Amino acid sequence: MRTTARHVPEAVLFDRDGTLVVDVPYCADPRLVRPVPAARAALALLRDAGVPTGVVTNQSGIGRGLITSEAAAAVNREVDRLLGPFRVWRVCPHAPEEGCACRKPAPGMLLDAAAELGIAPERLAFVGDIGSDVEAAAAAGAASVLVPTAVTRAEEIRAAPVVRRDLVGAVRFLLGAELRGTGPGRAA
Fold first, then answer.
1. 144 and which of 28, 34, 137, 185 could share a cystine (Cβ 3.0–4.6 Å)?
2. What does the DSSP 8-state code read for residue 4?
3. 161 with 187: CB under 8 angstroms?
4. Which of 15, 112, 129, 133 is catalytic?
5. pLDDT tens track for 7-36
6. 48 is catalytic
7. Which domains does the chain carry?
């Protein structure tokens, strides 16, 4: 599925930090988890449409020894409590220099999530806040929507096939619910 395709994806996966929840670098404390303002509304739109959701997240703090896998799992449980339930979770615990096949921008976690969901990767969509999210989706053959934050670089925004201001806009695009006059691509 190309990012400009107008069919509804069979599942939508999300990046965690900076996309679904406010980014707290190397977060090890579930009490610090705060959903971004549009997260609940966007997820409700998908769930109301019967579209399964999941989370795909790089957690290099584990591989770097900055947080434990148990602390990361506790944070994930809090995200799931606040915003879930999510049908699938994938976490890459590796540091960047480990060269794994799962760390975004590699497609491993998206491909694995698609397999667990029983969905062809090209029938998925992935929503994230940085270029590696868009690159992982492209490498997996999935659609992507970039929702920029303060850390998103200008070149990542320019390179993204579809950009929306917030998660509701991203989901409305994926569901084909935005005004046809705005078309695919950049937000109006």
1. 137
2. T
3. no
4. 15
5. 799 999 999 999 999 999 999 999 999 999
6. no
7. 11-121+138-149+164-177 (3.40.50.1000)
Cα 66–chain centre separation: 23
Of residues 64, 61, 114, the one with CA closest to residue 90 = 114
At 11, which helix (H) or strand (E)? strand 11-14
Would you call 15 a catalytic residue per the annotation?
Answer: yes
Are the beta carbons of 89 and 42 closer than 8 angstroms? Answer: no
Instruction: Note whether 64 and 95 are within 8 A (CB).
Output: yes
- Residues with Cβ within 8 Å of 102's Cβ and at least 6 positions away in sequence, in order, are 90, 92, 94, 108, 109, 112
Whole-angstrom distance, CA of residue 137 vs CA of residue 132: 9
Selected catalytic residue, list 17, 29, 80, 112:
17
